[in-house]
Amino acid sequence: MTALDVQQTTGNASLDKRSWLESHEEGYHKALGNRQVQMIAIGGAIGTGLFLGAGARLQIAGPSLAIVYLVCGAFSFLILRALGELLLHRPSSGSFVSYAREFLGEKASFVAGWMYFLNWAMTGIADITAVALYMHYWDLFAHLPQWVSALGALLIVGSMNLVGVKWFAEMEFWFALIKVATISLFLVVGTIFFAGGISIAGSAPGIHLITEKGGFFPNGLLPPLVLVQGVVFAFAGVELVGTAAGECSDPKKVLPPAINSVLWRIALFYVGSVVLLVCLLPWTAYEAGQSPFVTFFGALGIPGVGTVINIVVLTAALSSLNSGLYSTGRVLRSLAQGGSAPAFLAKMNRQAVPYAGILLSLAIYVFGVVLNFLVPSQVFEIVLNVASLGILSTWGFIVVCQMMFRRAVSRGEVADVSFKMPGAPVTSWATLAFLVVVLVLMALDYPNGTFTVAATPLIAVLLWAGWRWTA
User: Fold this and answer.
1) Residue 203 in 3-state DSSP?
2) Facing residues of 409 across strands?
3) Is residue 36 within 8 Å of residue 322, measured between CB atoms?
4) Is 200 helix (H, G, I), strand (E, B) or coil?
5) What is the C-alpha end-to-end distance of the chain, expressed in Å?
6) Alpha helices in 138-245 (DSSP H)
7) Contacts (Cβ under 8 Å, ≥6 apart) of 210
8) What's the pTM?
9) Which residues form the signal peptide (predicted)?
10) Measured between alpha carbons, how far is residue 340 from residues 44, 109, 471 in Å?
């Protein structure tokens, strides 16, 4: 056999594999347009980490929180660009799970998919818990049992996901729009006060509020370093646009601008908001347990601002729950098609919704409702640390798949794409190194993070047993 024959044989094998993978996308309705995909990308990048968590982080790290957001946001963007390169190669509702199957094999696909499911299963439980806690803000629901609100949120969002992809997309569009509108309002009002030098609560805005209060690192370098792991998880969900690609009407046209827009939105919404916050009021004015936006608007004497922000964070939690159900249903279907999950999870209804996978996720979330009944004060702590491992695993698989795709391109096995990860392979290796640093920081966060990382061997054993069972 000649070298040309070998090359043709290899090329035909690669083509057959891609054809087989592409056949798995059949059955989905290509119903997502530019408007919806843009908002899905925004919604994945903006969550309660900004609206609620920024208050506690400002209290710990001061103005240096802006630098932490910038660094973590930059790596999140690189991860999204790595995913974008894969999406332009072959749009897939299985997202990185499908790419792991193509470039790393079925075992890697199994691990990637089930770790992602673990992430969203735990995150979804946290989301319904958050909804229940936010509902207690209003006196009308103050005495309502936490599990009742959690179950109500689950029924509403679950129903919308089972009806059809357009219902999910419309919900996510409006959820994202509420978040964007809120931050935009703050940026406009805050800029007016800053530019006009209008005093707030007896304090004149300006850069001097940073320099006179210890500079960007008032508490030293250690606090912002410790915050890195928490801020990384605030960006969890940016990869959701990859799952939506398989149901996008024109992925090659819609996805690149949607992905590229995430960088400036992170810079504006996260970094810009934090810098403006500490230039409007001393960073010591912000505190844990209260949204920094409530602190600012409250200082202006605007009534009802707490209610408005509570609606926004409630929206953010529902958005995350909505996204989790959408993505796990598609990922579980991809796993089932590859033989890495029970076959019934590949089933779809007449609306082209992988209902079996969504129902499985809903069953896990019902367990979360039970936890809200049994240990309502401990649910967050129990699930979020487990979810963090799934996030790191997901992002790591995306970058490794992108690196393997580049190697396949160099060997002539697959066609190149124009939408490439900037600076690769240097940025690919740098991103993997960053994820390892985050894992180390988690391990040093005693006791929760330490115990979570220590549980990794147990998770590995469970994955091995699951692989043996499905093989």
Assistant:
1) strand
2) none
3) no
4) strand
5) 34
6) 146-163, 165-196, 208-211, 222-234, 240-244
7) 63, 216, 278, 279, 283
8) 0.86
9) none
10) 27, 8, 7
What type of residue is 454?
A: A
Domain ranges for the chain: 29-470
Separation of alpha carbons 78 and 413, rounded Å:
24
Q: Give the Cα separation of 3 and 264 in Å (integer).
A: 48
* pLDDT tens per residue across span 131-188: 887 888 888 888 888 788 888 888 888 888 888 777 777 787 888 888 888 888 999 9
Q: For the chain, give the number of residues.
A: 471
At 425 the three-state DSSP class reads: coil
pLDDT of residue 268: 86
List the one residue out of 238, 249, 226 whose CA is nearest residue 119: 238
Model confidence over 387-414: pLDDT tens digits?
Answer: 788 889 999 999 999 999 999 999 999 9
**Could you read off the pLDDT of 196-227 as tens digits, one per residue?**
999 988 889 999 999 988 899 999 988 898 88
Asked if 124 and 325 count as a contact pair (C-beta separation under 8 A), the reply is yes
Is 29-470 a domain of CATH 3.40.605.10? Answer: no
Tokens of 333: 């279907």
Please tell me the distance from the alpha carbon of residue 5 to that of residue 14, in angstroms, as a whole number. Answer: 14
CB-count burial class (<10 Å; 0-12, 13-18, 19+) for 140: exposed
